From TrEMBL:
Role description: Catalyzes the oxidation of 5,10-methylenetetrahydrofolate to 5,10-methenyltetrahydrofolate and then the hydrolysis of 5,10-methenyltetrahydrofolate to 10-formyltetrahydrofolate.
GO molecular function, one term: methylenetetrahydrofolate dehydrogenase (NADP+) activity
Transmembrane portions of the chain: none
GO biological process: L-histidine biosynthetic process; methionine biosynthetic process; purine nucleotide biosynthetic process; tetrahydrofolate interconversion
Sequence ranges assigned to domain Tetrahydrofolate dehydrogenase/cyclohydrolase NAD(P)-binding in this UniProt record: 139-284
Family: Belongs to the tetrahydrofolate dehydrogenase/cyclohydrolase family.
UniProt entry tagged with the keyword Hydrolase: yes
InterPro entries attached to this UniProt entry: Aminoacid_DH-like_N_sf (IPR046346), NAD(P)-bd_dom_sf (IPR036291), THF_DH/CycHdrlase (IPR000672), THF_DH/CycHdrlase_cat_dom (IPR020630), THF_DH/CycHdrlase_CS (IPR020867), THF_DH/CycHdrlase_NAD-bd_dom (IPR020631)
Protein name according to UniProt: Bifunctional protein FolD
Protein's pathway: One-carbon metabolism; tetrahydrofolate interconversion
Gene of this entry: folD
E.C. code: 1.5.1.5, 3.5.4.9
Catalyzed reactions per annotation: (6R)-5,10-methylene-5,6,7,8-tetrahydrofolate + NADP(+) = (6R)-5,10-methenyltetrahydrofolate + NADPH; (6R)-5,10-methenyltetrahydrofolate + H2O = (6R)-10-formyltetrahydrofolate + H(+)
Length: 286
């Protein structure tokens, strides 16, 4: 059986580091790194995510501010709130929970956030900095995946990696981080030919396609490392079950290491959000 990459355990270690950094910043500069979270509407999954993010921030001794807006909030109202947070020196990181209600323009909202406070790493300037290898604030999920990968591969140089999925949130920034680590990277997607064969030749597979159990044991080279980013809510016998993009039971018999769903990448995403808030607070000191 594959080695299990426990995101809960690893994220707890990262959060301990965050808490130590919070104490240092408080002692040396008299500041409390503070994260502002904006939630628009009543999406149940988004409410859970926001609650967990705020809880972890408070556990690490950070400041947290919640702005909960109703689903009918206008673009102008949301932009005004972001402008206020941009100009508040007590706020070091800003996160607008996605997805937004359909009448709001997500690209406009992301672009409105001060890049220095963009702890999601989605602002076009931060995306460009990542592409050129100079980013301070990197998208949280790919960042968490890299920390997990280095538990198995301290030196990623020369590893052959296939990233399944090309989203702006995971697939593309994941590929950029892997390239910076001197991996040979292929991005596969719904139009990729012979995708199974590509994956079978990979030392590492990062699954971020958003399709439950897309990747099975036939896709995986024996001993490969598998990072499952997918979180898919599926009804099984009338009960809601969370599944990844990887058929865990069969792949775990083939792979050398694998992340579970839940309890794998998810906790690392929140931990890296707080890491980004610390980085943002430090950068704002200069």
């Amino acid at each position: 059986m594959a080695q299990l990459l426990d995101g809960k355990q690893l994220s707890a270690q990262v959060l301990q580091e965050v808490a130590s950094e919070v104490e240092l910043l408080r002692a040396e500069y008299g500041i409390v790194p503070t994260l502002a979270v904006v939630l628009v509407g009543e999406d149940p999954a988004s409410q859970v995510y926001v609650r967990n993010k705020v809880k972890r921030a408070e556990e690490a001794g950070m400041g947290s501010i919640e702005h909960r807006l109703d689903a009918g909030t206008t673009q102008d109202t949301l932009n005004e709130l972001i402008d206020h947070l941009n100009n508040d020196p007590q706020v070091h990181g800003i996160l607008v929970q996605l997805p937004l209600p359909s009448h709001l323009n997500e690209d406009e909202v992301i672009a409105a956030i001060n890049p220095a406070k963009d702890v999601d790493g989605f602002h076009p300037l931060n995306v460009g900095a990542l592409a050129s290898g100079r980013a301070s604030l990197v998208p949280c999920t790919p960042q968490g995946c890299m920390i997990m990968l280095r538990q198995i591969h301290p030196d990623l140089s020369g590893q052959n990696v296939v990233v399944v999925g090309r989203s702006n949130i995971v697939g593309k920034p994941m590929a950029a981080l892997l390239l910076q680590a001197d991996c040979t990277v292929t991005i596969a997607h719904s139009r990729t030919k012979n995708i199974e064969s590509l994956c079978r030749n990979a030392d590492i597979v990062v699954a971020a396609a958003g399709r439950a159990e897309l990747i099975n044991a036939d896709w995986i080279k024996p001993g490969a490392t598998v990072i499952d980013v997918g979180i898919n809510a599926i009804d099984v016998d009338g009960k809601r079950k969370l599944m990844g993009d990887v058929a865990f039971e069969s792949v775990a018999r083939i792979a050398g290491a694998i992340t579970p769903v839940p309890g794998g990448v998810g906790p690392m995403t929140i931990a890296c959000l707080l890491l980004n808030t610390i980085r943002a607070a430090k950068d704002q000191l200069s």
